[in-house]
Specification:
With about 325 residues, the protein is α/β, with parallel strands linked by helices. It has one domain: Rossmann fold (3-Layer(aba) Sandwich), CATH 3.40.50.300. Helix content is about 40%, strand content about 15%. The protein is built from 15 helices and 9 strands. Strands 3-2-4-1-5-6-9 form a 7-stranded parallel sheet, sandwiched between helices. Strands 7-8 form a two-stranded antiparallel sheet. Strand 7 and strand 8 form a beta hairpin. The radius of gyration is 19 Å and the shape is globular.
């Protein structure tokens, strides 16, 4: 199983569109995919369930808020018990051999970071604080190591646009980090800051693991950056506009985060309503237009980097 966190500090960069469609296309190639929605905006969840469905079926009993809301995440409810299988997208996948499951987010997740921070600050000894730090930050990682998740090939985690404690649990749980970005100044401004924050978290976590009495149940982490994927790219005469190409090249040359070769053009027709009818755009689109081809290339690139590319796509 490969675990990938999808994150960017900047909103409006396709952060939800990317895991929804990437997960659906990976499942359409026969993989078993789990999506974890850790963004309080809940947009990834609403890509597969209507707001009414979420209120009636998920809100009170099947969201990640129930899992994080315990004294220690996962203490009161198993993560596996929160997994749901969206019907509409899986009907579209029925001939592929793959499956797409989801753990829903909740609007109330926005308050969880403050609650977790209060719990983290509640110890009075150095050893106790290290133990609580590791147990809290490593909670999602431990949950995904349970037997119930061994059936999955790929887990995609949609993170909130911040570096709060919930996002940190996703980084600790992940092997790779995928960063969607627009080719403009504001979207690329925080890339190295994000990389620096991740490096600091990894350093601190591994330092505490190395402290014998604090890390007996934990092992070191080493999440890498899968790369930046530029989304909502402006195309003119089948070429990226010069202004955006400048930003892409600046990131490629100057950033500590690698840049993927694949790019996804701006297409309101495809992504104006990401979850129309509970099926992501790339599974709804008839034929193979340029956007579908670009997402196909991105799926090849990501799955290839994760050693998950099916034999007939290598």
């Amino acid at each position: 199983m490969r675990v990938v966190a999808v994150m960017n500090y900047k909103g409006g960069v396709g952060k939800t569109t990317l895991p929804a469609n990437l997960g659906a296309m990976a499942a359409n190639r026969g993989l078993r995919v789990l999506l974890l929605d850790l963004d309080p905006q809940t947009n990834l969840t609403f890509s597969f369930f209507s707001v009414d469905d979420w209120h009636d079926r998920l809100k009170d009993s099947h969201t990640i808020k129930q899992w994080y809301g315990a004294e220690m995440p996962g203490r009161d409810v198993s993560l596996a018990d929160l997994v749901v299988t969206p019907e509409r997208v899986n009907e579209a996948l029925e001939n592929s051999g793959g499956r797409l499951d989801l753990v829903s987010s909740h609007l109330g997740l926005i308050d969880i970071d403050l609650e977790l921070a209060a719990r983290l600050g509640g110890t009075t000894t150095l050893d106790g604080s290290k133990r609580k730090f590791l147990d809290l930050h490593g909670s999602l990682r431990h949950a995904l190591e349970e037997d119930a998740f061994t059936e999955y090939d790929l887990v995609l985690i949609d993170c909130a646009p911040n570096f709060g404690l919930v996002t940190k649990t996703a980084i600790v749980a992940s092997e790779q980090i995928l960063v969607p970005a627009k080719a403009d100044y504001l979207s690329t401004l925080g890339l190295d800051y994000l990389a620096g924050n991740c490096a600091t978290l990894v350093e601190q976590f591994n330092e505490f693991v190395g402290h014998k009495r604090g890390g007996d149940d934990h092992h070191p982490i080493d999440p890498g950056f899968l790369g930046v994927v530029f989304t909502m790219v402006q195309i003119y005469s089948q070429q990226v506009t010069l202004a955006q190409l400048k930003y892409i090249e600046q990131v490629r040359l100057n950033s500590n985060v690698p840049v993927l070769e694949s790019r996804i053009r701006n297409s309101p027709r495809h992504f104006g309503d990401v979850g129309d009818g509970g099926v992501p755009a790339m599974l709804r689109t008839a034929g193979r237009d340029e956007v579908v081809k670009e997402f196909d290339q991105l799926t090849d690139e990501v799955l290839g980097a994760l050693a998950l590319l099916p034999a007939d796509h290598r």
